[in-house]
Every structure is written in structure tokens, then in C-alpha cells.
Amino acid sequence: MALSTKASMRRSTRIQVRIPVVVTGPLPTGGTFTEETYVVTVSKFGARLKCSYALTPGMEITVKPKAGDENALFRVVWAGGRSGNSDDVGIQYVKRANIFGIAFPD
Questions:
Q1: CA dist., res. 37 & res. 58, Å (int)
Q2: What's 13-93's CATH class?
Q3: Among 5, 23, 90, 101, which one has the highest count of C-beta atoms within 10 angstroms of its own C-beta?
């Protein structure tokens, strides 16, 4: 499928950004991790971020923008992606919110 066709089928526009965030979540071996990183794409339903931990689809993580007071729970929907960048992670809001402060049309 052509990229432009795929983009037109998306539920929401994606906006390229670089938002510093703190990500926390469970480790497969028990315990939790915390990482300061950044979000690179935002949509109404989720985001793509960079993460050096091996996250897997289905995991739930908390993301908090460094410049804000709010955080939100996200579910990992993909890791690695077609680009093969193992640190790219697609996340979707568990309960839709707008912690990144970007207004999307309904």
C-alpha cells in the first residue's frame, strides 16, 4: 500500500514533534523502569516515542511530559516498526486524554 494511501486511512492526523517526556513501566523481570526520552509523533489517539528499553505490544506504560503536571497511561501497540529502529515505539492512550496540549479537530 502506498504511503499516501495509508496516511489517508488513518483515524487522526499525525504531527511531527519533539516533546521531552518521562516514561515509566514494568520490566519483564519484575520491577519497573524510568527513562527520560522524547515523543516524535503525536495523534489524537496516541504517539510514537523513543525508548531504549525492550517494550512489547500489550505492555502498559505511563508517559509524563517534562513540561507538564499531567501523565497518562498508554498501551504499547508496536515496537520497532518497518524502519527497523528498535527504539521506536507506538503507543495508544488507554483512556484518551491530551497530555501533549495539541488540539486535533473532531
A1: 20
A2: mainly beta
A3: 23
In this predicted structure, what is the pLDDT of residue 1?
46
10 Å CB burial of residue 27 (0-12, 13-18, 19+) is: exposed
Q: What is the DSSP letter of 80?
A: S
pLDDT at residue 106, as a whole number: 64
| pLDDT in the model for residue 80 | 84
- For residue 47, the number of C-alpha atoms closer than 13 Å in the C-beta half-sphere is 32
What per-residue string of b and e applies to 49-69 under the rule 16 or more CB within 10 Å gives b? bbbebebeeebebbbebeeee
Grid coordinates belonging to 97 = 486524554
The tens digit of pLDDT for each residue in 45-103 reads: 999 999 999 899 999 999 999 998 999 999 999 998 665 567 899 999 999 899 999 88
- Compute the distance between CA of residue 34 and CA of residue 45 in angstroms, rounded to an integer: 23
